[in-house]
Amino acid sequence: xxxxxxxxxxxxxxxxxxxxxxxxxxxxxxxxxxxxxxxxxxxxxxxxxxxxxxxxxxxxxxxxxxxxxxxxxxxxxxxxxxxxxxxxxxxxxxxxxxxxxxxxxxxxxxxxxxxxxxxxxxxxxxxxxxxxxxxxxxxxxxxxxxxxxxxxxxxxxxxxxxxxx
Length: 165
Known about the structure:
With 165 residues, the protein is α+β, with helices and mostly antiparallel strands. The chain has a domain at 61-165: CATH 3.30.1330.60. It is 45% helix and 14% strand. The protein has helices spanning 2-18, 41-56, 74-86, 105-125, 150-156; strands at 60-61, 92-98, 133-139, 158-164. Strands 1-4-2-3 form a 4-stranded mixed sheet. α4 links the parallel β2 and β3. α3 (74-86) crosses α4 (105-125). The longest helix is centred in the C-terminal third of the chain and has 21 residues, at 105-125. The radius of gyration is 31 Å and the shape is globular. 24% of the residues are buried. It is a lipid-anchor. Residues 49-165 form the OmpA-like domain. It comes from Campylobacter taeniopygiae. Residues 1-22 form the signal peptide.
């Protein structure tokens, strides 16, 4: 009986010592920022900047049935390349070629691709890494204007930029 009593007391002592009070310190800053990733606030900043730039980057416009960069559009290429090389240097760029409604679907698809490729080559000439740039053609399927005017058609002959991580 003494052995059972001694074993019970020993077990009780072990349990009691395991439950001793410990001082636990908790940081007073208990806020959680769900936008912070491994890069902290920088991750949110780059997402915000990409979104802002996607809404404000200048477009490159083309003449009817052409895919060469017009002299008046070279400044757009230079400004966008500067942004791509400095502000968002690690971000992927998609150049989207677009056309007006004149021509067959197949022709406009090919022309949109040529426009996107011409813009990519111009960006690369300004120092943007070609591995960051992909090209895409929407042909005539992505108009920004649908009026039957020359001014409207001119708005649809363009290359646009989309940034992504």
